[in-house]
Specification:
This protein is of the alpha+beta class. The protein has two domains: 2-194, no CATH class; 200-272, Alpha-Beta Plaits, CATH 3.30.70. It is built from eleven helices and four strands. The protein has helices at residues 2-10, 12-33, 42-54, 58-77, 79-99, 109-129, 136-144, 152-171, 173-194, 210-221, 251-261, and strands at residues 200-207, 226-231, 238-247, 266-272. A four-stranded antiparallel sheet has the order 2-3-1-4, with helices on one face. Helix 8 packs antiparallel against helix 9 (173-194). It is elongated and about 65 Å long.
């Protein structure tokens, strides 16, 4: 019971950063982008379009549209992701309502898209870095990437093309193009802050519990593992090295798997520039 309490205490700094990120994202939308008819991508962009067409509360649209997709993605990304994503989503929705009462900072379209895009990118990047998300599109894209031969980024981009295409009929061609430009700025900033949503990570795990860890990685993350034999330079003892490739959002889940199985394991995680071949299981495979 005490250990669970301590684990909750350790999550407080992470939740504070998620709150900060949600506040920055909400401010970017309400005081820079939305007043100038510039929309975000993903399901939040859909929410803005629906809010423009039908009226009502933007916060409610965001919760109603995103929550089902967050729940669909939690099995792939873990319970901690689910908790942080729901917390981030609720804070984001609440803060949108708060910042909707503020006056817009500028009506200059270029200033709005640049500074709004920067602020939105930093906010979303902070949330992703802490293991949460503010848009259910990414969670579903990670799951879909295991079914189709497309990366997470490609799936999100294809989805956003439809969103910005629809925005033409609601906000006009010029505002849709401005929104697309804002998306590229935001995505680049997310890449800088969180090291990229879809960027592959190579994990090397030195452990004595190779079977348990590899089975959990396959079961919980759907990733295959290559088992490599090694030898310690000082101890001269035989070592087992596990090699796998994961996404940025799966790092925290991998940490939990390794720590629960073998606290003495040594783990290194590095960037992967390109992947050739399939390194994941198919969802349709029997467990």
């Amino acid at each position: 019971m005490e250990s669970k309490f301590m684990m909750c205490i350790k999550q407080i700094p992470s939740l504070i950063l998620i709150t900060l990120g949600a506040a920055m994202a909400a401010a970017a939308l309400e005081i820079f982008l939305i007043p100038n008819s510039i929309i975000d991508g993903g399901l939040n962009g859909v929410s803005i379009i629906l809010n423009k067409v039908f009226g009502g509360s933007l916060s409610i649209y965001i919760i109603v549209l995103n929550l089902p997709f967050i729940l669909l993605g939690w099995k792939q990304l873990g319970k901690k992701f689910l908790v942080k994503a729901i917390y981030g989503m609720l804070m984001f929705s609440f803060l949108l309502a708060v910042f909707s009462t503020f006056e817009e900072v500028t009506d200059d379209i270029l200033l709005a898209l640049v500074y709004g895009g920067l602020l939105l990118g930093v906010g979303v990047g902070l949330v992703i870095k802490e293991g949460g998300c503010l848009d259910g599109t990414e969670a579903v894209a990670i799951t879909l990437s295991k079914r189709v031969n497309l990366s997470v980024g490609q799936i999100v981009f294809i989805f956003n093309i439809f969103i910005y295409g629809s925005a033409i009929f609601v906000f006009g061609v010029d505002r849709a193009l401005y929104s697309l430009l804002t998306y590229f700025i935001t995505f680049k900033i997310i890449d800088i802050v969180s090291e990229g949503l879809e960027q592959a990570k190579m994990a090397l795990i030195v452990t004595d519990k190779e079977e348990k860890i590899s089975e959990e990685i396959y079961k919980r993350l759907g990733r295959t593992v290559t088992i490599i034999s090694g030898k310690g330079m000082v101890s001269k003892s035989e070592k087992t090295i596990l090699y796998t490739v994961i996404t940025r959002l799966e790092i925290q889940e991998l940490r939990d798997i390794v720590q629960n199985a073998d606290v003495s394991s040594f783990v290194t995680i590095t960037d992967v520039n390109d992947i050739i071949g399939n390194h994941i299981k198919k969802i349709s495979e029997p467990e």
